[in-house]
Fold each of these.
Amino acid sequence: MSFHPNDIARRTRLSSITLSIGFVALLTAFFRAQILDNAKYAMQSEENRLRSIPVPAPRGIIYDLRGDIIAENLPGYSVSILSPRVDSLRATLGRLSAIIPVTPREIENAVRRFRRAPNRPTVVLSDASIDVVSVLEEHRLDYPQMIIQSVPKRYYPDGPLVASFVGYTGEITEAELNLPKFATYKPGQQVGKGGLEKEYEAILHGKEGVKFDEVDARGRPVRTSSMRPDIAPVSAPSMKTNIDMKLQKQVAAIFSDTLMGGAIAMDPKT
């Protein structure tokens, strides 16, 4: 089979034009990616390399009228998992339960927190003991998405003596998250559950911060990043009350260990 010379020339020109168009398209795409969209891709690359971790803010310290501490914060530990999907989270928690105590209820609570805020590290243990933390540190390389961090833990020096009027703190519930006054709160955060802790929650809560960790291709932490400045948490202001802890202790001593009863001050000045 033979072709007319004009057909060969026409096909040659058509092939050249097609190749030229393809080459121009490739150059255009290269120019867009390297020049026009360089900033966007650079930002995406940095975000993929940096992992943001929420940093809880210490609650405000509560004092009595003499300046004695009623409620303060001590160092504690929390364990969180940064997971892309629910099934991945369940699988990780299943593996964790083989080395530390993780109850089915804690797993379901973690899944609930994830569904509420999937882009946020999911709190698994909000108050992990030092023994649990030690075990997890030994297996850290096996769980690159695990985050162990120091968090403020609420402490009441006088314990049951102040429970009736100071209250306590606990994890925010689903019902509370739906309330307008908790619009900025996230699953796993602590809130006041009674007494002064609940009444003055807006004052005692503080403002959560965030830090950025550099991670490798497997998501394992390399170091705290200097590429972006961490946003430090803002501690809540202290609160001084008119409560007289010295008097509270004197009254409590009257009722021995039961702490059941009451006292009336006929003349507060004395």
Note: Confidence is low (pLDDT under 50) at residues 40-47.
Amino acid sequence: MEIRIVVDEAFHPRRFGELPTDVSELVTTRHFQKGEIINLQGEPAHHFFYVHTGHVRATIVRPDGIEKVLAFAEPGQFFSDVPFFQQINHWYTGEAVENTEVSVFSREAIKKINNVRPEFVFTLMQSMAHKVWMLSNQMMTITFDHSEVRLARILVEMLARKPEGTRILVSTHQELSALMGTSRVMVTRVLNGWRSTGIVSLRKGSIIINDFSALKRVADMGIG
């Protein structure tokens, strides 16, 4: 597999398809409205979740009040599975960014699933291993790649989660800086540079991608 494909996969969360019927029968389904908290940072991880519809934003808040966006979970993905199996507290908060439906897995449900469909546990292992793979590559890009490359990758990934042809992203510079792990000033500087070359146009609270091919070339620059 080419290194470009490997890195591209590492920055796009893996989807696992629909839950098997016999698994769905052993878990509960819950609906969350936009803005509702699904799991709270610091609370015991008695459950983990699978997204059917909608999107979930995972954020962590430092003791000084600074919030960092870690990732997004979308349909076909698990979240909060790592602290669940570690038997520790949730280390991030999961919030529904739109109306969202999830399956809720408890320890009792996992025991029953292991009896009726043991191969499903391997799917969970794949999910957690992929998160480790993504984290490793995110650390790599933070360490070695320029801010332009990191921001371009984030925007390309955000577009990948939207309907085909989407070119307007609703996001503030502050939100993007949290995703990048850098300052808002740096995000603004990069976006202003792209605006001057015609790659993007900027509006309050949104970014218009004028030249996706150019943005993708920037995102690929750090791959080597």
Note: The radius of gyration is 18 Å.
Amino acid sequence: MTPPDPSTAQRQETLLSVGEVAARLGVPASTLRTWERRYELGPTARSAGGHRRYDATDLERLERMNLLISSGLGPAAAARAALSGDPVEVDGDAADFGDAIVAATRAYDAEGLRTLFTRKLEDLGTLHAWSDHIAPSMRRIGDEWYQGNIGVDGEHLVSDALHTALRARFAARRLRHQDHRPVLLACAEDEHHVLPLLALQCALAEEGVGCHMLGQRTPFSAISAMTLRLRPAAVFLWASIVHFDAGALSSVVDAAGDQSELILGGPGWNVDSLPVVSDLADAVTAVKDAIALHPVDA
């Protein structure tokens, strides 16, 4: 009987399934399948039973692909570099992150977009990731749309990817117990841009603050009713399009009274009598100040 070739046996030991590679890289198996389908970064070997497996060379390419994406390079460019082995200089600043987001949007790479957003949130936390990287990149997407370089479909694709990443981050940090009065978050009537509100929800969760999220296009009557029912420490309302004045807010102002702080966020308010915050950091601070001003036993 001919003994097995030691080199063959050694190669078999290093062959990995898609699940094993996903676990090593810390990415979903679906991401690996996307990379295989779009960029030809799939398994090239087979097990003794004929199943497709990743060998050491395949794994090395995927590790490089993963590293380049996490450094801010777009998925398509990262795949080309991983396959060619050519050196790539990657600067992880906001401009390069924006380039990666634009490139992934143009390539309709939903999985790549979700990965970019998720890793930036994990690396920096929501407050810094949003302020320094994500918000500027979304403004670039808006500019690209205005210039005709990206269609409405691309704009919706990147918004959905960011929505998914923010929801997942919040779900992983959802508070089981709150030692403060409630905080109410809502978009104003006819306001459908909910992403800044989701970012605030995540940033507050990271600060140990739980919230009730009413979401987009919330009628002021519903916000008023919820305010009367919950007696929250803070009611935060987001609006991006200027068409709201003090008169439209009268029912919410009356419901808040002296029991709750009403905080407005975004450029969509034409109100001088109420505080309006312009960025995420100020919004987090305003909500935390409201919690301190209205303790549980007040």
Note: The first helix runs from residue 6 to 14.
Amino acid sequence: MISLNRNNNGGIKFLIIEEDPFLSFLVRAELKKFFSIKWLDVASSSSEGLDIANYKEYDLLIVNYDLPDIDGLSLWFRLKRGGVDIPAVLAIRDSDEEQSLIQLKSDQFDFVLKDDEYPASLIPALRRLLESNRKSYIDAILHKTQTEEEWLDALSQTSIAVNHEINNPLTTIIGTTELLIKGNYDLDHKTQSKIAIIQESAHRIKDILIRLGHISKPISVDIPGGRMIDIRESSRGVPESSRIPSKITIKR
């Protein structure tokens, strides 16, 4: 798929696979008249074209159908099977081949005749592929954004529900432990220490609940068996006043 960033940063990346040097020259000249080009490479055989396309990134492929070793259509299919997905325009000599190729026309593939209008006839086909792939790229970004927004909304609703269900009993636990620690109860130091641990743990749970409500951009981390949201890293904007106490004083 064509990246908008690629096209905006220095032009389009073309690969031409054509065994006729003169036609290659004409195609290059035509492209330079109509497109901003980042690089424009030429291969004179299918094998050379396959080698180049497999190690270098391209936005558009112009390939001759009548190549001596592998025909241009088979070459394009071979690239796709190998994971190299380049939109292509196939140049054909015989108009009889049009009927078999029409059904293949898509956002990724087009063809033109090598007639008197060639290579000028390449330009509309290339522009169509560029525009189609730009639209696909934008649609993919919009879909991803919409999915992320829906996911964040679900996370927010979950946070509200968890806070609603847990906050009241949690507040009771924190309040009770604070009364036990600060009140005039005849508790030994060991018991007070255990109560303080309970209170600190309750504050930590409350801190996590507050942080859940402040997540705007989830940051995931790898854990054994999968991935999870790093709640602390994802909620760096939580006010200091909401944090857990740094120290809980135990009465002696």
Note: Residues 54 and 82 are 8 Å apart (CA to CA).
